Structure formats: C-alpha cells, structure tokens
Amino acid sequence: MLWSDPENEPPKELRDMQEMLRRLGVLMALAMVLTMIVLGLR
Length: 42
Description:
Elements: H1 12-41
C-alpha cells in the first residue's frame, strides 16, 4: 500500500454490493424460515 492511499476504505461500488448481498442474505434466511413454517403446517 502506498502512503497516499486512503484509510482502508473500500470503494463505494464494493460497499454498495456488500450491503446488497447482506440484505439478500437476510431475505433468503427469512424466506427459508417461512418455507419451513408453511411446510410444517401442512
């Protein structure tokens, strides 16, 4: 790393992608739980 580099901050695109992936993971987990509940009720 060069001395002129900013403080270990990822570029905006990378941060946006990480945020999106995090949300996607949460949504997937919720979908799995809902699916398990629906299957369990049948």
